[in-house]
Amino acid sequence: MNIGFANDVGDDILMLDTANAPGGIMAYYADGDEEIIHANSYVIELCSCSTFEEFLEFTGGTFRGFVHESEIDQVEESIWMQVQERRGFDHVYYHVETKSGRLLSIDDYGRLIEREGERPVFYVFLAEVDRQEARDWLTGLPELPHFKHLVALEALGLHGDGEESVIVVFDLMGMKGYNATYGREGGDVLLRGFADVLRRHFNPDACCRHAGDRFFAFAPSDDIGSVIDSVFRDFAASGIEGVLPVMAGACMFYPGDDVSTVLDRARLACDSDNTTWKSHLTWFNEEMRTEAELRVYVLEHLDQAIANRWLRPYYQPIMRASTGDVCCEEALARWVDPNYGTLAPNLFIPVLERAGLLQKLDMHMVDCVIEDFATKREVGMPITAVSVNISLSDLGSVDIAHEIVRKMREADLPPGLLKVEFTESTATDNPEQLRSQIKILHEAGFSVWMDDFGSGFSSLNILGEFDFDLLKLDMELVRNIGNNRSQGIIAGIVEVTRKLGMGTLAEGVETPEQAKFLKAAGCGMLQGYLYAKPNSLDYILQRFNKGLNYRRESLSEFEYWNAIALFDIDSPISSSEDWSYDNGRVVEFPVAIIEHRGKDWNIVRANRAYDAFLVKTGGMPADAPESHVALTDDNADPDFLTSIERTLQSGTWERVAGQLEYGTGLQFFTKHIASTPGADAFVNASVSTMLGSALGVYGDVPIAYAVFRVVLNEAGDGLDDMEFVYANGEYCDYASVDQESLPGRRYLKSVGEGGRIWLPYCYRSAVLKEKVQESLFVHDRDEWIVFSTAPASVDGCCSFVFFATENHPKGMVDVL
Ligand code: C2E
Ligand code: CA
Ligand code: CA
Prior knowledge:
single chain, 816 residues, alpha+beta, eight-stranded mixed beta barrel, six-stranded antiparallel beta sheet, elongated, binds ligand C2E, binds calcium ion
């Protein structure tokens, strides 16, 4: 027998009598092309070669050429992983195709030798095995072929005894997330732990691990439910950190059944409910069988479905929270089949995804949406933006972002019309690809939305790491709005998102209560059955023709409302100036976004402080905060309008101080933030200086000044008394009252019955809304009082200003 060395390395091997070893011995460089250095006769004969040269020629002289090409990548990955974990040793199985075309199963024990100054070398002992003996290196459970073989044998035995049997598939839920958290090693511990549990409850030879985190078991069907329950219980109690829930699927195995088919059915059952986040068992049923058939049908008819437009978008409206108009529609795929009727995406999307065909669907959807834009235009329907769902699971195929950009350009449509939704899981599965796709879309002017936030292992970090324009709150979150914690979570997410300059959309809104809460939390858009289900374009057009549709936003309005939704009214200016209406404390800066539409001024968003401000200044009733003041060009404060004019010119903050007269001082801070044909939006902080610390303005002037709230007599035609709201230092000095505890104190009690002479004037101002300018001679003081009273901006209040003089101001004589 002719054995050989390709090079003159391999001293260690020379020392072995490799030629007569009871198995194959081979050495190859662990780097580069993995060039084979040595192979003994066993290996050479194994490949049906007769010389080392022939063997080298047959394998291309490399280990990669030795292993069956369909397995080489996986085998190498496994080798390197084990080498790292087990200090240089590995144990793998693979197939080798011989020169004569036979397929052999190989059991390979390898060892990596690294010596200084030399290239690393793998020394391998290998033997052809009966694959049915093969065991999984991680868990020691039989491998799939062995398992199948055993199942066939066991089943014969069981069925012979009249017992029925079952195949169970287990899947650890969230294994990907587990590996991300605990590392590969942690993941291995978990998998081994589960294998141990299986060994305890089933015949250890009738279990198997396959494809990472899937396990199979075969057992008598008797009492299988409680056996599986104890598997769940034991695993949960295994003490492994962060132990995961397990989903299981089971299918009866009858005499004559094919093992692979039953396995597939159990697998289907297992996968049918992957949303219940706790251990659970699902039995295979007839419905699943039909579904299984349907899946095959889908794969076989995809091209036909695209060509015939069986596959097409249904549209679900997305509502603008502030106006109730449709601001966008989500395109959701439907397969309207001539044989099966309308298929929902959960029937065909997973199948297409597994087959790597989802992109084909996504691109077809974009084509359809573009066609539908044209149809809508033809019938005169306003063109609203549409969002499409794009999957990035088919790695390495068409560059989706470029494809979308190209399609929209060719159709001559502005990028604002198409929003691209990527699901949150894309961010963990394909972060790099996602980042580059977002970049391409952004550069072309498209918005990118994150779908399903809150459905999986959501992390707020994702928001910082990817440049999304909007976040869709998953319906799971919305569904839980009933409880306080979820409310807090949603409010928090909305706030964080806004700080990051992103919009929010809540999906799955089904009740008015949910909508109300989401609006109040500041969520800008709402979508769900409360408004409409996804509908075909035909249906939408029919309703449009009957005038039954919701009002639709144009593209310009979309941008306009976005700007409004994104403005941070809680910190509109960076330096918080001490303008407050409430007793000298900066309680909260009252800020609102006000729009000018036609002649009307509408408050479209307001923070809490602004609402309180309006209540306080009489702008709106406290019990109906939704019904904002009806403000028009005709009754708006001229100073407010001045601030509007100025910011329209400057585009930045303008501050206009209203006249400080009659006790009402107003400061208007205003900034123009967005416009659309027919409307402009401004952010406005109107700060009243009448009540509270800003009265300090009057505090220092040498004119006595006070504000009173009147106390009507029973008939309502005059005053019994008044209450102090405010009085400045000058007033208090003059009237000898103590400024400290003044607010709320009765006037006559403080100044005596002589004060009655002022009540009629205050009545005229506070109740009849007159401005009064008079002078009175006060005998006991022997001087003239020149005064004015005026209505204050709060109902039932008047302001009072006066000074004293020895001479009658108009030179008239006292008539009294
Ligand atoms: P998704 O993107 O999260 O879409 C929202 C799903 O929730 C839609 O189901 C919609 O009909 C449903 N839905 C909307 N409002 C409510 C509600 O108030 N209550 C409830 N219970 N459900 C509501 P649909 O159309 O069956 O789509 C399911 C999923 O299929 C989508 O979830 C999306 O992930 C995927 N999908 C649909 N069309 C496409 C597509 O063209 N391409 C890709 N890649 N995926 C798609
Ligand atoms: Ca979506
Ligand atoms: Ca979603």
